[in-house]
Amino acid sequence: MTGYELAKTFDASIGFFWKADHQQIYRELTRLRDRGHIQGREVVQSGKPNKLVYTLTPEGRAALRHWAARPSVPASIKDDLLVRLYALDSVDIEPLRTDLMARLEHHRDRWSRYERILTKRFPQGTATPADLGKLLGLRLGVRHERAVVEWCEEALDALSALSASAARTDVVLLQDGPRESNG
């Protein structure tokens, strides 16, 4: 696979949960080649620049297995919107509402995209052993996006209730439990 093909594949798969721009992918390919984990074979093309096709070496496969055997690090949330909501009594509500509406649409789009991929790739909800990790990742993506959509809707409702009250000292009741969503 070439660097370009890898970057495109990355964008449509791993890129949903691990961010890397194309330049970072090319830098990593160079590092992996320098370590002997991949090898590049130049393919001569007429009328355009030659391309490098990369393959995993036995050392690279061993390094991948070693890396995959290490314990993972749980993801942490670092979200400036949550910090602004934390300081809600000191900030303007309208910019937060606008930001939340944009976030809501973003996560609705991703939820819909994950659902389409899930339906297309795994119509029966089953997977081969080679694809089980992909199915599990998609299911987590669907659940995550649904949860964020529901939370955004809840936050927008709460901000509307707060705006409707005359003073910010009033109590705003939040419903407990799952919400109905138009996802």
In percent, how helical is the residue content? 55-70%
Q: Count the beta strands.
A: 2
Class derived from helix and strand content: mainly alpha
Mean pLDDT: 90
Strand share of the residues?
5-15%
SSE string, helix = H, strand = E? Answer: HHEEHHHH
What is the 3D shape? Answer: elongated
Structural domain count: 2
Number of helices: 6
Question: What do you see in this structure?
Answer:
The chain is mostly helical. The chain has 2 domains: 3-69, Arc Repressor Mutant, subunit A (Orthogonal Bundle); 80-164. Helices cover 56% and strands 7% of the residues. It contains 6 helices and 2 strands, in the order ααββαααα. It has helices at residues 3-11, 22-34, 58-69, 80-86, 93-121, 132-164; strands at residues 38-43, 51-56. Strands 1-2 form a two-stranded antiparallel sheet. The longest helix has 33 residues, at 132-164. The chain is elongated, with a radius of gyration of 23 Å. The model has no long low-confidence stretch (mean pLDDT 90).
